[in-house]
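Recall the central idea of this unit: under ordinary conditions, the amino acid sequence of a chain determines the structure it adopts. In this exercise we apply that idea directly, starting from the sequence alone.
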Amino acid sequence: MTTDWLHFRLITATIAATACFVFAAFLFLHGSDRRVSRLFALSNLFLGLWNISDPVTVLAPTHGLSLFFDRLSYVWATLLVFVFFRFATEVLGGHFLGRTISRIHGVFAVFLSAISFTPFLIRDVKTRPIFIEVPGPLFFLFAIYLVFSLGAALVGLHSAWRRAEGLKRNQLKYIALGIWVGTIAGVLYLLSMCEPSIPPVYFLIELIYVSLVPITILRARMMDINMAFRFSVVYLVLGCALGLPLGGLMWLLSGQPWVAAVSFVIPTIGYFLIQRCSAKVLGLVDRLPPFRGRYGALRVLEHHEREVSQGGSLGGWAERLLKAVREILCPESCYVLVRDTNEGSFLVMAGEGIPTPKRVFLSVASDGPLVARARSGGILLKELIEMETLPESRDLQREMEFLGTTAIVPISYGDQVYALLCLGPKIGRDMYNDIDFAGLHGLAKSAELALNALLSGALANRYAAVWAHDLMHPLGPKGTFQTLGDFLSGKHGELDRAGREALLDMQSDVDFIRSNLKNVVGSVSPCTLKIKPVHLKEIFDRLRDRYRRTAQENGITWIVAEVPETILVSADEPSIERRVFGNLLENALRHTPKGGTVEVGYRVEGNSFVGFVKDTGPGIQKEDIPLLFTPGTQLDPKNKGLAGLGLASVKSVIESHGGQVWVESEVGQGATFFFSLRRDYPPNR
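Accordingly, the structure predicted from this sequence is:
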């Protein structure tokens, strides 16, 4: 039995090493974050070398070589832990345990590498009848080094996960899950050093860590990591479902674990290879005469759906829809009819394969039988309508014959049919089949979503622009706010210091409103940023003066940090001052009771500036924190802001700067809102 476990160890070590090398190559070539990917790829490389050292040690021809290769494996292990710790540091940002701990960690790596070839770390190794490593007197240092690195990474990931949002939060969650699994494998390995009878199952457990973390890094850009993990679990379950029965049967027949392991692994890996190669095999099948040219375009249906769902003008939307239909279904003719409210009919917006004279006259009445049938949803097929015996079917047939269509797809906006996608016969007069209609249905849904977004956005923008235009009047050359300049120039008499400061604050606010209302009227995105180096001292000084009066009137202690001249950030100054600090302070002052404190402060973390607004208000319940930055959220019905948009505005501005925003709060102990910005530096630095 001991020989069987030796074979099991060697097989699983080889499999784990192969997985490490494969994922290292994928991460190095295809990782979404170049530095993070390459650090983890390097750690996978060292982990693979550590794993493959077991078979190499056993197969070595002499005991001396076996001992050499086993001791060499601890060089790879030490480098693995060192690089893994740097990977965790990169993921978490900066020195998450401080520079001193990082330096001590590096010194430990150098020391352990230096003693790896001495009896102090590994005294001896036995390869028959069971693999046994005899630890030296200093092996406990390696154990502490390994456990500390894994534990510190888990603690840091948990802390970062609590602050993160969205995709980053999911990514940290699955990296932490992978490292938890890796920690279990590492602890089992260390225990096996003390008790060799423990089965060497840690290599199989390690496979989860080796695959889960790279999947998180590789696929974070392409899809929600929950979805990536979901598919990975599905593949794993199906693969195991193929391998487990065969592995169990071979164990019963042979009585040898290594035979069962091989019987389990081969079909499991085979299933993954089938998933990997299915597209290529399908491509080869589609080249056979019965299938040639019929289904190839459907394989890129997802690409066409994405193209159709893009924004733009109504004409561009129609052109993209027709392009997708032509490439997938190859009709002789196709065109899009769009509702014209003024004419009371549907007119051609875009078309292919129809003569220009006919295109001019192609239309259908908005109150006709065709549009009435289209309201019920579903694709209208000429063949099916010709088989109907309903009274209105004859009129439907005549309208479809006039349009020259074989199939019509209604596309709705709200509760009304807004467009009709009309298709003529397929080239070659082939019939439309179920797969064609499935693809057409997917395209229609994407087109409908895009149309709704397009029309809703246009209506909302037009409504906002009209209001902004009217709101500009008091701010214009003949508006009443122009008198502010008269007062400040002394035209209406001298002002005392307090009055002048108040009017200057008002003038600053008016300038901010005027410039941004012009953006709305001119259909310029309000989020257009002018990034440049900004001295934070000037912003903090203005905030101190602007909100002092409000804090005093409400009986609130007002604290604003002193910021050195040397601290700069790359930012759009009005957005940071007005939209970020302005919204955070408006919330803090509104929720802080009399006798409380509102503090504006900062800290510097590497190349990041972290600003914060802290209050001593009622605090926020944990279950409400994920909702805070969602537009329209107002948690306190008795103390509402304007429209629940302030924190959503903060989030949009900070994320457009490439930063993050988060909150720390406990009920009854106030709340602190943080945001990060990239630092800039003086030219002479």
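The two ends are 68 Å apart (CA to CA).
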